[in-house]
Amino acid sequence: STVPVLTIDGPSGSGKGTISRLIARRLGWHYLDSGALYRAIGVAAGWSDVDLADPAALVRCAFDTRIEFDESGEELRILVNGMDATDELRTETAGAAASAIAAIPEVRSALKERQRAFRQPPGLVADGRDMGTVIFPDASCKVFLTASAEERAERRYKQLKDKGVSVTLESLLREILARDARDAQRAVAPLRPAEDAVCIDTTGMSIDAVVERVLALLPAR
Ligand code: C5P
């Protein structure tokens, strides 16, 4: 495909989601929140009592779950099988379920084409763990965002608190470290920068500063 793609990968709380959405808006490009797909499948599996230890049933979920991104309002809403699941998807429970099912190779391949279908003119910003390594290896520009675990936990904490979710910083830090370790150590599509990715440590950086850094990497438009 000749449609340009900017991939933004990194661990949870690295700022991928916020940065990707802002850049997509600035460029007028489409946005793929690939983590939301894994979260949606985890949540849909929970709704229908599918066992997170039953790979075959989870693969069926990956094929059957309808996931829609509604960008018509102020905030992006995510519908799972027609139901607004935006808030449920953001919880760390959904994140942990996503990380468990994301380790199943067949679930990952079931989602491959669905993710690639987001590559539509005039361009795509794709955020996740394997956007630059597996899903869009030919992306025009690849970024890998990191930040200290403490800062990432704090960012998530603020995000969840703003949404009215009650969590403690300590438990969040523990959960984030466990999820990152699992994502980095799994056999398929582990969390790691693509060889041709530009790594940016966002610890102590403002959102605007990161957006500008990433935009500066794109070929002149
Ligand atoms: O980015 P987010 O925190 O929403 O992702 C939730 C989980 O989904 C991650 O911890 C990871 O296990 C999985 N994921 C993945 N590949 C992606 C995006 C997310 O394995 N491209």
Structure summarized in a few sentences:
Helix content is 49%, strand content 15%. It is an alpha/beta fold. It is globular, with a radius of gyration of 16 Å.
Give the helix/strand layout:
Layout: E1 5-9, H1 16-27, E2 30-33, H2 34-47, H3 55-64, E3 67-70, E4 77-80, E5 83-84, H4 86-90, H5 92-101, H6 105-116, E6 124-128, H7 131-135, E7 141-146, H8 149-162, H9 169-185, E8 198-201, H10 207-215
Parallel strand pairs: 1-6, 1-7, 2-6, 7-8
Antiparallel strand pairs: 3-4, 4-5
Cytidine-5'-monophosphate binds next to helix 2, helix 5 and helix 9.
Structure notes:
The protein is α/β, with parallel strands linked by helices and 221 residues long. It has a single domain (5-215), classed as P-loop containing nucleotide triphosphate hydrolases (Rossmann fold, 3-Layer(aba) Sandwich). The protein is built from ten helices and eight strands. It has helices at residues 16-27, 34-47, 55-64, 86-90, 92-101, 105-116, 131-135, 149-162, 169-185, 207-215; strands at 5-9, 30-33, 67-70, 77-80, 83-84, 124-128, 141-146, 198-201. It has a five-stranded parallel sheet with strand order 2-6-1-7-8. A three-stranded antiparallel sheet has the order 3-4-5. The model has no long low-confidence stretch (mean pLDDT 93). Belongs to the cytidylate kinase family. Type 1 subfamily. Its EC number is 2.7.4.25.
